[in-house]
Amino acid sequence: MFNVATIGTSFITDEFLKALAQVEDIRCTAMYTRVQAHAQTLAERHGVSRIYTDLDEMLASDIDIVYIASPNALHAQHAEKALRAGKHVICEKPFTLTTAQAEQLFQLAESQERFLFEAIVTQHMPNYHAIKKLLGQVGKIKVVQSNFSQYSSRYAQYLSGSVPNVFSPQWGGGALADIGIYCLHFIVGLFNEPKEVHYFPNRGYNGIDTSGCGILRYPDFIASFACAKDSRSECITQIQGDAGCITLHGEPSRCPRFIFQERDGTVHEEYTLAQAKNVMVHELREFTRILKENDSAAHAALKQESLAVMRTFEALRAHGNVPWPNDD
């Protein structure tokens, strides 16, 4: 049985704990928060017995894994502390602020003989794996498009002048970091790193990208994506080839259902594979399996994808001149 401790008390931690309850051989036994009252309700809801306000004290306790859902700007320092304490780490997206941080953390994890995972649900969804297997039937890829747009529940707060973390440059917020990252994992996970990238943001009053469009140029095709937290749209992802087209209906994070059409428009098949309602269940099952079996090869594949996405993300952010922590 693996004992997990959490850092962060936002809604995503609540979802993580709900998913954890559906996975065998892993449980949450501790939480870290700067203010105990912030975690009290969450701990009671999920039966977590220990709340720490001292991170070092928690890291010295009998836990095996640390789940990090702190603000984006704190991911790297929290992951480093956990790894140095000899813990495995599951870190929320975006993994780190920079590629250099990600590389350093993976090197540290290797030296500590610990596993470091990026909590990105896309790559673990059954329908995503089905899409990978179907790519050969699409023929030569010509165009890829992905849209993940949802009107943020915190956008009104932002417009009022009170800046939540998700719209804060100081905390590593913005549309690209928050939901565009799912489009990147979907595309880069299927086609590897692009040769050239461009990002065109719509900026809020503090310079943050409240929405934006990106272009990823590959040797033989173009991929594009749109991500928005200031407006909503039906989320659709399409992979167009000279023999057919795959159309994913729904967020690229969840991959709820997709169809494969032949070149003449004939619907070959509709895919709605059984998936857990809480999409985090799939990644947690895989992380637990890797830990139990010490599957370093599977971990290495996840690591390479995380680094490829980080390099792409960093290049897009730089092209779009999106403000970021520690920018001069």
TrEMBL record:
InterPro entries assigned: Gfo/Idh/MocA-like_OxRdtase_N, GFO_IDH_MocA-like_dom, NAD(P)-bd_dom_sf
Record-linked SUPFAM superfamilies: Glyceraldehyde-3-phosphate dehydrogenase-like, C-terminal domain (SSF55347), NAD(P)-binding Rossmann-fold domains (SSF51735)
Superkingdom per UniProt: Bacteria
Bilayer-crossing regions: none
Residues of the Gfo/Idh/MocA-like oxidoreductase N-terminal domain: 2-117
A Pfam family per the record: GFO_IDH_MocA
Residue ranges annotated for the GFO/IDH/MocA-like oxidoreductase domain, each copy included: 136-246
MF terms in GO: nucleotide binding
Protein name: Gfo/Idh/MocA family oxidoreductase
Organism of origin: Candidatus Merdibacter merdavium
